[in-house]
Amino acid sequence: MSTTESPVGRLKALGLELPREFSPGGNYIPYRRCGDVLYFSGQGPRTASGAWITGTVGEDVTVEQAYEQARGIGLALLAAADKAAGGLDRIEVVKIFGMVRASGDFARHAEVVNGCSDLLVSVLGDRGKHARSAVGMGSLPNGMTVEIEGIMRILPEGTS
């Protein structure tokens, strides 16, 4: 696999880097590994300093802003996967579950969660394609706009 075909190479080509890890906001861990499967706790959008990005999509947050926030959550999920698996070369995304804090008449949840989905596919290629749910919520912890949890798999060594 050439450098630009590797997940790290794709990140660099996109001008991105994995964010630093933040402590969970409660009595839980960021992920749990069960055999070759990784279960990730919900991640929300944060600023570089770690502050939560808050608001309601369809009211004070646009779809485009929330898409970018979901994209950032995708990076945070990849950072956790990198730590859990010791690299991204053998990571395959199985499913993500996206929750969008939205106004009652909002109907573009899938477009918001596409921010995460698009990022995962851009970085991992076909291994980033996944099953998905995108739903609306009246509220989310800390007032965050989007929360996304994921399930990923670590492929056997030598898998290409």
Quantity of strands, as a count: 5
Query: What is the straight-line distance between the termini?
Result: 8 Å
> What is the assembly state of the chains in this entry?
single chain
Q: Please summarize the sheet with the most strands.
A: 5 strands, mixed
**Order of SSEs, N→C?**
HEEHEHEE
* Unreliably modeled segments: none
Secondary structure tally, helices: 3
The coarse overall form would be globular
Helical content (DSSP H or I, runs of 4+): 25-40%
Strand order of the largest sheet: 1-2-5-3-4
Structural class per helix/strand content? alpha+beta
Key phrases:
160 residues; alpha+beta; five-stranded mixed β-sheet; 3 helices; 24% strand; globular
Q: How would you sum up this structure, described in words?
A:
This protein is α+β, with helices and mostly antiparallel strands and 160 residues long. Helices cover 29% and strands 24% of the residues. Strands 1-2-5-3-4 form a 5-stranded mixed beta sheet, with helices on one face. Strand 3, helix 3 and strand 4 (131-137) form a beta-alpha-beta unit. Helix 2 (63-85) packs parallel to helix 3 (109-124). The longest helix has 23 residues, at 63-85.
How is the topology of this model organized?
Blueprint lengths: L6 H7 L17 E4 L2 E7 L19 H23 L5 E11 L7 H16 L6 E7 L8 E9 L6
Parallel strand pairs: 3-4
Antiparallel strand pairs: 1-2, 2-5, 3-5
Helix pairs in contact: 2-3
